[in-house]
Amino acid sequence: MADFDVPKFREIPIIPKLEEGTMEHSKPYVAKADFQQPLGYPGELVDNWKEVAIDKMGELLGKYRSFQVFLDACVKCGACTDKCHYYLGTTDPKNMPVGRQDLLRKVYRRYFTFAGKYFPKLVGAEDLSEEVLDDWYSYFHQCSQCRRCSVFCPYGIDTAEISMAAREIMDAVGKGQKYCNEIIGKVFKVGNNLGLPQPALENTLEGIEEDVEDDTGVKVRYPLDEKGAEVLLVTPSADFFAEPHVDGLIGYGKVFHEAGISWTLSSHASEAANFGMFIGSYENMRRVSMRIREAALDLGVKRIIFGECGHAWRVAYSFLNTLAGPFDFLDPNYPVPQHICEFTHDLIKQGKLNLDKSRNDDMSLTYHDSCNVSRASRMGDTPGGQFSIPRDIIRASCNNFYDMSADTIYDSTYCCGGGGGLLTDDLMELRVKGALPRMEALKKVVDEHGVTHMAAICAICKSQFAKVMPYYGFTLDQIVSVHQLVSNALILTGQKSDDDDDDASDED
Amino acid sequence: MAIEVNGKTYETDEEGYLANLNDWEPEVATAMAKEDGTELSESHWEVINFLREYYEEYQIAPAVRVLTKAIGKKLGKDKGNSKYLYELFPYGPAKQACKYAGLPKPTGCV
């Protein structure tokens, strides 16, 4: 199945022995000029790339105080070394968070610190060279920017921000990553990562309306570009395209229907994801975000709700107002923006959803906390809402729920292995290996509690798991959307009885 | 990169997807499948042809759900599911079938 060794489950999760250079060969495709230029980057490696890179680093150091603090503060205490899923799965020391940071730190020291300028060898400072750039390209595309290491760092050094800066420097010299940059270009051109034009979205949504009506006897609408709707739903385009994502989208529609709130999707802002964050580009992140503002204004909505997408929620929760605000034209009685889980959770609390948990009795669930939701955002109005709200929704929809080990969930959650712009086939080895710690934790609840499915609220997590789970002896349909569970359990007002429900046959 | 079929060279991207959609000919699909160790059956062609028709109308590959529904309508409900499609295209119907059909690779969180 694979042309690399799939890591074996560790009986006791010991820290693996270091093996230098095991992942040196892992490099995603470099973006061609067609994918670089629309983002404002040079089409190929510029001649004076060293100069440009150092200038860019200087610019970022001036712009982001945190970046300089992170490069200065590390005392090599070692707390982060065994916290990265990519290190645990690959055993490559440059995948230890400190090892990764040092790739940039050594160049920073050489050009920006007194000691590094005059006594480079004493302080581990190094000239920027082709080898260093190669290492950057390889290892800064082996970080999913999940920030697990930062939770354990006594100084709070955030490797994600260092990775983002490194990628921005590489983009500036003309060495960008194909996967991310092609996708951002598609958002600018078409409106979403997949490049789904308006007619394709319309066709897909019409199909969903037919299916839901066939299934339930109720006409649930999945509106597109409807002016005057109360809510604009911004969701990852994978929700239109892939499985199990689309089952979540079906769930959102049913929830809106039962709430009696008018809503719409937008073809202009048909993407929640914002890969501008992955490449550390404020400007591109802002351009992607502005589409949401434009759509909200154009459609005259009062609220913006985000669908199940991990990093989108980070951008939405933490940065949207800065990037694309002010949102003074929206209804101030609701959070701007709101997460679909918050919306559904409120309805459950108010008793507005008729949920029959037994309709999910063919499954026993666990829940994968997505990194960006867990460590870079919040939900609801109490601390830890981003952990409790999705779980409350699952518990309200299912009878069987078991959490994975405490050190692998909540803010200690492991990345799925495909976040941060790494969800591409050319990084499959890395993705499979990086999934090891999550797969081990899943195996444990499968063995101990008979868990059959894992739920998630992130499009990347869902696609990544559907792809890598078969490498670990699971099946690709063992990953589900949280709103898929809601959709299964929800009995719509006026819904026909489901004696002849043929959904179940899909599971056989 | 390129793929050679019957003495004719077709340009592809790094991942083996045809660079120009209009270059496509059935022989290209057969050759690409052969590289993956697959021989295209009538069932494969049903999917490939549907993908091409859909692409022509919508300029994008169909969503997995749209595809399964269309196949189900055409070939019976037992085949209208992604399990059937994965049996035909084990690397994933969206990506592998698109490649054979000469369509660009679906990008994004899929």
UniProtKB/TrEMBL annotation, chain A:
GO molecular function, one term: 4 iron, 4 sulfur cluster binding
Keywords: 4Fe-4S, Electron transport, Iron, Iron-sulfur, Metal-binding, Transport
Pfam families in alphabetical order: Fer4_8 (PF13183)
PROSITE patterns listed in its UniProt record: 4FE4S_FER_1, 4FE4S_FER_2
SUPFAM superfamilies named in the record: alpha-helical ferredoxin
Domain of life: Bacteria
Keyword Iron-sulfur in annotation: yes
InterPro entries (UniProt xref): 4Fe4S_Fe-S-bd, 4Fe4S_Fe_S_CS, Helical_ferredxn
All residue ranges annotated as the 4Fe-4S ferredoxin-type domain in the record: 65-94
NCBIfam families: DsrK
Name the UniProt record assigns to this protein: (Fe-S)-binding protein
Taxonomic source organism: Thiohalobacter thiocyanaticus
Automatic annotation (TrEMBL), chain B:
Keyword Ribonucleoprotein in record: no
Gene3D superfamilies: 3.30.1420.10, DsrC-like protein, C-terminal domain
Active site as annotated: C109
Matches recorded under InterPro entries: DsrC-like_C, DsrC-like_dom_sf, DsrC-like_N, DsrC/TusE
Subcellular location: Cytoplasm
GO biological process, one term: tRNA wobble position uridine thiolation
The protein's Enzyme Commission number: 2.8.1.-
EC class of the enzyme, as a word: transferase
The keyword Lyase is annotated on this UniProt entry: no
Keywords associated with the record: Cytoplasm, Transferase
Annotated GO MF terms: sulfur carrier activity; transferase activity
Pfam families, alphabetized: DsrC
Similarity-based family: Belongs to the dsrC/tusE family.
Function: Part of a sulfur-relay system.
Protein name: Sulfurtransferase
Protein's organism: Thiohalobacter thiocyanaticus
